[in-house]
Structures are given as structure tokens and as C-alpha cells.
């Protein structure tokens, strides 16, 4: 749940590398 919230909170452009890591965790 926290991962999803972070994904939505973080920008889609600035958190590009982070998003990839999040998707991997999810």
C-alpha cells in the first residue's frame, strides 16, 4: 500500500528511476 502511495505522490517524470524500482518491488 505504501509503495502505491509513493508512486502516486512522486512525479512521473522526476521519479523515473525510482518508479522502475517500485514497479519491480510491486
Overview of this protein structure:
By secondary structure, the protein is mainly alpha-helical. Helix content is 69%, strand content 0%. The chain has 2 helices and no strands.
List keywords for this structure.
mainly alpha; 2 helices; 69% helix
Helix amount: 55-70%
Roughly what is the average pLDDT, rounded to an integer?
61
> Which structural class fits the helix and strand makeup?
mainly alpha
- What is the number of strand segments? 0
Our Rg estimate from Cα atoms comes to: 8 Å
- Strand share of the residues? under 5%
End-to-end separation in angstroms reads 10 Å
Largest sheet: none
Shape by Cα distribution: flat
Determine the number of helices (DSSP H or I, runs of at least 4 residues). Answer: 2
Order of helices and strands: HH
Quick rundown:
This protein is an all-alpha fold. The chain has helices spanning 2-9, 16-25.
